[in-house]
Amino acid sequence: MTWIVQNLWLIPALPIFAAGITALLKQRSRVPAASLAIGSMALSFLLALCAFAHTLAQPKGAAPLTFNFNWFQFGDQWLQLSWMLDPLTAVMLVMVTFVGLLIFIYSAGYMEHDENFTRFFCFLALFAGAMLGVVIANSLLLLFMCWEIVGLTSYLLIGFWYAKPEAAAAAKKAFITTRIGDLGFLIGMVWLYSQTGTLLLYNSGAGALETSALAPLVAHTTILGLTVSSAIGILIFCGAAGKSGQVPLHVWLPDAMEGPTPVSALIHAATMVAAGVFLIARIYPLMAAHAATILTPTVALQVVTWVGAITAIFGATVAVAQYDIKRILAYSTVSQLGYMMMGLGVGGVAVGMFHLITHAFFKALLFLGAGSVIHGCSGEQDIRRMGGLRRFMPVTFLTYAAGMLALCGFPFFFSGFWSKDAILHAAHNWSISQVPFYLGALGALLTAFYMTRQIYYVFAGSNRLAAASHDDPQLAAHFEDPAHPVAHHPHESPAVMTIPLVILAPFAVLLGFAGTPAWPWFQSFLDDTSAPFSSPAFFEPGIIPVMISSSMLVFLGLALGWYFYGRKPIASAESPDALGKLQPGVFTVLGNAYYIDALYGATLIRLNTFWSRLCDWFDQFVWNGAVQIVSYLVIGFAWVDNFFDAGVINSGFDEGCEGVSRSGELLALLQAGHVQTYLRIIGCALVALVIFLLWGAKA
Amino acid sequence: MNSLQNYLLLSSLLFAIGLAGALTRRNAILVLIGIELMLNAANLNFIAFWRFGLNPSALTGVMFAIFSISVAAAEAAVGLAIILAAYRHSKTTDLDQMNSLKG
Q: Residue A615, Cβ neighbours under 10 Å: how many?
């Protein structure tokens, strides 16, 4: 057991500790708050690098390094918690700490004018610590606890500007929606515990993900012919789907963009939403466990694949018709998370995780770029009112373009190409159905299309912000407000915001070369196999055709984007969308995200409201009536009792007490408080005494 | 009627006047003066009983009288101070209104 494994807990503990101290600071101590958070994150990053180096040095095929400890005892069993270090953990640790560190630095600039700066960094550091806790956990219970803290901080940060009603509602929505998924997670976890008696994932042969525990789970079947392992896997996937915005539970993610932009970048693009994907990757042995005789993928993995594919195409189509710069990226995130899930389903841990890592970098880059754009346009988020920003914000434009090409999967030079291609390739080879492959390919086309649309709207053409502000008195007032000394022209953001962009951009481009088919270093690192460089691997059957067809789709998407939005410059903020003019009906449906929110409002929420009303009615008239009858009975008894007390028992006492108090009153007359009265009495007594003495002497 | 009885009559008259003053006056200072009169009546008795007593050469009566006069002076100082404090507290020296001794 080496130093780094024993002290792995320090990586999440440092940011949590920083959050604890920041919580005690005064509201105005901005510099200590920011430097604590950034400093703790930098230390965690260094430790994560140590951990990464340690896993690199591990021999291939070794068991994961774990560290168990007892938490508390119930009955005759000790509940054990544990953390672990394996390649998956190490990669995630480095990604989360590195992206987190850059976003922390960026936030120091972005939130500079916010009066709750300290609170922001407190929440941010708490989030980072909890997320790192999820990553290192080797016990489902520890993972679940950190998972819930992550959910809590997400709630706190989405609702950071809680005075805005939309932000408060979005925070509530995110919290409740993810709770629905987490219920499945909890049930799955309890079921797993009842079957295997342990929640440790790896425990030198006795963990829940090791063959001794998985064999009985695979052997038994439950409802619908599912094996127990698949059923538990699907339940846990519910939690992952809630966190990662998979289709039935995706509704919270676009609304979460009400939070500050660094939060959107860190939590709702790079790390937290990836936690669901990470969870499935972590419990992949459970998801994939099958009897030796069955060769098709398990039902759990099929569910993951289908949900992922549907999410991928859903997010991509909706993103086409959005106008809010952050909402486009949010739906794009939904879509990319779908790709990751699909990658896990069809290709295994390495394929899904590779896309997770590359996506984390370029999506963080895109969100930070969007934040820079919003900052430069003084809070404007509507892409119809932007335009021409290429000239005003060159650094932001260049880095944003790198992120955009990576997201589109522009061939050969950008990371998104390699990771998306790995997913499409795996989907092409899937034994069940080709449909996920076609959905994914169509999604790739749409991704290129909507990102081109966004780039043209935001960065090309002439600036429409000033023109729009003339028409909109509220916006015009905002510009003439002396408290906001910004010009009518947009401006480039300060260095503290652009430097993280510049650091992230090369990663968004170059990271893909760690996992090309010719040199699948990343995949082999996660799968614990060795992979030398081999150029012939490029020419294995199936790789080149998929690569060419996906490249063609990307080019087609870019070209379509140019055809609709780049050919003629967008005239004014009011001119209708080019696609909207062509297909207004479809465009409106997409713009409203297929009316899923309205559907939930009309069905689930209405049902819930109806049920609450019913419960309320039941409470008011049935239960309340019963309670009222009982209470009247008790009151009646009490009245009888009271009569007996007052009439029989009390009157005797009362008489006695009144006698005492009357005699007291009489005696109190003597104590009038007049000194002279007392003196007078003394005088009378003296006279009486003298008379008595004189007469006594005579007698 | 010998001279002792005259003194005793005088002292009892003095005592009665002092008592009457202490009982009837409203002003606390006048009440104090009345009490001083009663004390002096007692002093007069001391002197008279010593002068016409069994052993007039021992000067015991004078000793008593001087003691009681000095005690009376101290008592007057304390009494006046109390009256002054009570006045500052209640803004009055009227004894009818100073009835906070009431139980």
A: 11
A132/A142 Cα distance (integer angstroms): 11
In a domain, B13, yes or no: yes
Q: What is the pLDDT of residues A196-238, one digit of tens each?
A: 888 888 887 788 888 888 888 888 887 777 888 889 999 999 9
Question: Does any CB of chain B come closer than 8 Å to the CB of residue A671?
Answer: yes
| Residue of chain B with shortest Cα separation from A665 | B103
A1-49 pLDDT per residue, tens: 578 888 888 999 999 999 999 999 888 888 889 999 999 999 999 999 9
b/e code A624-647 from CB counts within 10 Å (16+ = b): eeeeeeeeeeeeeeeeeeeeeeee
A691: contact with B, CB 8 A cutoff: no
Which among B95, B97, B98 is the top mutation candidate for probing chain A, defined by the most A β-carbons within 10 Å of its own β-carbon? Answer: B95
On whether the CB atoms of residues A81 and A142 are closer than 8 A, the answer is yes
- CA dist B63 and B50 (Å) reads 10
CA angle, corner A347, sides to A342 and A351, nearest 5? 85
Please state the three-class secondary structure of A404-442 as a single string.
Answer: HHHHHCCCCCCHHHHHHHHHHHHHHCCCCCCHHHHHHHH
Evaluate whether A117 touches A33 at the Cβ level (below 8 Å). Answer: yes
Number of domains comprising chain B: 1
User: A671 vs B19: CB contact, 8 Å cut-off?
Assistant: no
- Which chain B residues touch A689 with a CB distance below 8 Å? none
The count of residues in chain A is: 699
| CB-based burial, A199-228: b 16+ in 10 Å, e otherwise | bbbbbeeebbbbeebbeebbeeeeeeebbb
Please name the amino acid found at residue A515: G
Task: Quickly list H helices, A348-414.
Answer: 349-376, 389-392, 394-408
Cα A464 from Cα A386, distance rounded (Å): 6
Count contacts between A and B (CB, < 8 Å).
Answer: 29
Q: Which structural domain, as residue segments, surrounds residue B46? A: 4-90
Dihedral sign for Cα atoms in the order A537, A539, A542, A545: positive
User: How much is the pTM?
Assistant: 0.75
Chain A's closest residue to B19, CA to CA, is: A683
The answer to whether A419 touches A427, Cβ cutoff 8 Å, is no
Which element (helix H / strand E) includes A582? helix A578-582
- Whether chain B has a CB inside 8 Å of the CB on A664: the answer is no
Helices first, then strands: H and E counts in chain B: 3, 0
pLDDT digits (tens, 9 = 90+) for A632-682: 999 999 999 988 888 778 888 888 899 999 998 888 877 777 778 888 888
Shortest CA gap A686–chain B (Å): 11
Cβ neighbours, 10 Å, residue A68: 17
Establish if B20 belongs to a structural domain: yes
From the candidates A679, A691, A694, which should be mutated to test the interface with B, based on the most B CB atoms within 10 A?
A: A679
The tally of CA atoms less than 13 A away on the side-chain side of residue A80 is 21
- B82 in a structural domain: yes
Residue with tokens 């700066």: A117
User: How many angstroms separate the CA of residue B90 from the nearest CA in chain A?
Assistant: 15
Interface contact A672-B98, CB threshold 8 A = no
Q: Which residues contact B50 (CB under 8 A, 6 or more apart)?
A: B56, B59, B60, B61, B62, B64
Smallest Cβ–Cβ distance between A679 and the set B22, B96, B98 belongs to B22
Say if B102 falls within a structural domain. no
Q: What share of chain A is helix, strand, coil (3-state, %, to 5)?
A: 75, 5, 20
CA distance B57 to chain A (A): 30
Domain of B11, CATH number, reads 1.10.287.3510
